[in-house]
Every structure is written in C-alpha cells, then in structure tokens.
Amino acid sequence: MKRHQDILKRLEKEKHLEVLDLCEILNVSAVTIRKDLKLLEQKGLLHRTHGGASLENPYINERTVLDKEKISVEEKNGIAQMAASRIVENDSILIASGTTVQAFSKYIQPKNKLTVITSSLHVVLHLIHDKNIEILQLGGYIRHSSASVIGNYAEYILQNVSCSKLFLGVDGIDLEYGLSTTNLEEAELNKKMLNAAQKVIVLADSSKFGKKSFARICDLSRVDEIITDSGISDIKRKKLEEKEIKVTIVDGL
User: Fold this and answer.
1) Residues pairing with 64 in the sheet
2) CA 214 to CA 182: how far, in whole Å?
3) Which of 203, 166, 172 is nearest to 82 (CA)?
4) How far, in Å, CA of 40 to CA of 48, rounded?
5) Rounded Cα–Cα distance for residues 126 and 120 (Å)
6) Which of 29, 109, 173, 233 is in the most buried spot, having the most CB atoms within 10 Å?
7) How far apart are CA 34 and CA 26, in angstroms?
8) Chain centre distance of CA 105
C-alpha cells in the first residue's frame, strides 16, 4: 500500500513521527493511521510509541559511560562547545552526569571565577586543574555505569544551593513523556538539580529525540533550551519551539 510506503519513507528521514502529524501529512484519520502503524509493527517494520511510531525501539536500556562515549562523538563535541559559550563571568552552574556533559566540561575555560556543582566524577577530573573553578563534588553512592553519585547525601546538599544554570544530559526526549534516564535514583537527583537552577539547558544529540527510558525526570515545560545537532527533524524542532523551548542547532553537524 502506498500509504504504508509513505509512512516508512518518512520514518527513515525523521526517525520518529506523531500520529497527528501523519494524519495531516497523509490526509487520513487518526484511526486509520493507528491501524496502519499496528499492521507495520506486526510486520516488524517499526515500533509503535505513545502517540506515534519510531524506526528504533524507543525504550532505552542502560549502557555504561564507556560505551556511550563511542556514540555520536562529533555531535557531542559540537554541542559541548556551544554549551560552553553559555557560561558567563563569575557564574555558578550545575552539571549532571552523562557523556555529553562530560564533553562539555572539557571546553569550559572561565575568564574569571566559576563555581561548579556536579555529580559526575569525570567532570571533576576535567576541571580540577583550573584554579579559577571552584568545585563542589556531590557525595553519595557511586553508579559504576555512569561514574556519578546518587542518593540522599547528594540530594540534601542541593536543597541548600542555588545556581544560574543546570547543564543536563538525558537518555531520552519525548514530546509527551518529557526527559528521561535509565536509572530511577539518577532521575530523582536530576529533579533536585532542576529545583536548584534558575535555567535548564539540555545537551542532547538528535538520536535522543523520540525515545524514552524507565525513569522520568521532568516534563518539557521545565526546559529553557535544548542544544542539539542538525539531525533533529523540522517537525520536532517546531513542536519544541511551540512549547517555548529555545532549540539551538549546532551548524555543520
């Protein structure tokens, strides 16, 4: 059927599509699109999601930081450089865990004093040699897979601080589900970080869009800016901007 072929061709380009968008593009009802997606999923050609479809399984399994470092390296470095430009003189920032924020920490070069609060051991190792950076390493249990801390000790410290920005890495960005990660305790720590920051900046390569993981961090309404690469579809970018989220696309990626 031509409509099925059109759906699959668009999915190859967009990676993830919403039912309502397909209704508008193909000029058919939501009931028809859902039947099409169910049939295509039964044939093993796509994965149905809440309100849409994806070529890849949208549910993310946990991988180690060493495995993640090998994925989308160029994109992560470009995003990281752009994120570093968001730091101002005498700033105070929160940095969560993940390979994209680890890359971000390599490009931080403050002209004056900078205060960094982080859960990531790798971030600390990248910043520790710069005397202009005052570092508060959150304490707690170590997650071996992410080389970061989790737990009540870290959450308690965050109740008593306030920073201008949170730089957050995530495993999934879904328009309905929001931001998510693979670990429930890490998601809880990220929520405390959100409450301690005046502005939330998400660093995520385009492969993260349309995906969700076990532990939900927050709704997209909590996000001020997403820095990503040119792999993000126009549809997703427009929908994010409709939610009043600034979407910064790094040129050349």
Assistant:
1) none
2) 5
3) 203
4) 9
5) 10
6) 173
7) 13
8) 16
